[in-house]
Amino acid sequence: MKTFVIGRTGLISNALYEEEKDNLDYFFTSSSLIPQKERIIPFNLQEIDSFPYHLIEKNDLIILTAAISSPDECHQHYARSLRINVTGPVSFIEKITKLGGRVIFFSSDTVYGKAQEDNQRVFHEDDACVPLGDYAKMKREVEVAVSQNPLVKILRLSLVIHHSDKSTRYLESCLKKNLVAEIFHPYYRNAIILSDILSLLKVLSQPWTKSIPSIINVGGDDLLSRVDLAKSFQKKNSSFRFSIVRPPESFYFNRPEIISISNLRMKKLLQRDPAAVTANRKIDNIFCEGINL
Within 13 Å and on the Cβ side, how many CA atoms surround 2? Predict the structure, then answer.
C-alpha cells in the first residue's frame, strides 16, 4: 500500500517528508520541478492530468495538503485560488477514488463560520456550516462535492502550532531583532501541535472501518488566543515584548474572531487526549517539542 502526499512545502507535508523520506512506500508531489530520484513527482492541481495515475492501486492513500491557505490571498487572487482549492481537488479526488484510492482531504474549521448564538458555541462535525470568507467557502465547496464518497475522509483543522509555523517564526524574529511584536486580538482557536496531526494521519493510514466518520474536527482541548500563545512564549523568553492590537475590520471579513470545535471524534481515533494541552500540562507546552523558547 502506497501513500502519496500532494504538496511538498507546506507545514504538514514538509513534516511528513522529513519523517517518511526514507520510506519507499511514500511519494510526494511538488508544483516545482525537483529531481524524481527523491521520489518527488512534479504535479500541479491546475493540471491534474499530469499525475501518474497508473501508479494508483486499490487502498493506496492520497494525503491532499496542497492549497492556497491564506484567506487574504484567496480573496485577492480569487480565480487562481479557485482552480487550486476547488476545481483541481474535486476532479483529482474523483479520478483517484475511481481507481480505488483513498483520499484524506485537509479542510478547515473556518467552514463553520461565525457562531450564530454566541461566541462560545462549540461546533460539532454535524453542525450546519456557514463559511465566512472565500477561503472557507472554497473548502466547503470541496466538502460538499466529496463528502458522500466512502473513499474520502475530511479533516477540519484548527490552528496548527509548530516551531516552523508562520506565527511562531514571527515571534522568534521579533525576539531576535528586539522588536515589539504586534499580536492580533481577539482571535481564538483550538490550537493543536503538529505532532498530534501526524499521529492522526498514522491512524488513518491503516485500512478504514465503517466506524471511522467521514468528517473529523482536528484541534486541541483548549480555546486559545494569539495573546495566550504570546504570553507562553514570553514566559520562556523574558526579553520578548509584545503589544495587543485589534486588527482592522477587513481582517474579520475572511476569518471569524472565534471558532471553538469539538474534538471528540479525533480523541476516539487517537485513543488519547491531544498532547499539547492535556489536563496535566500548562499552556507553556503548547509549542511543539524542539522549539527554542
Answer: 17
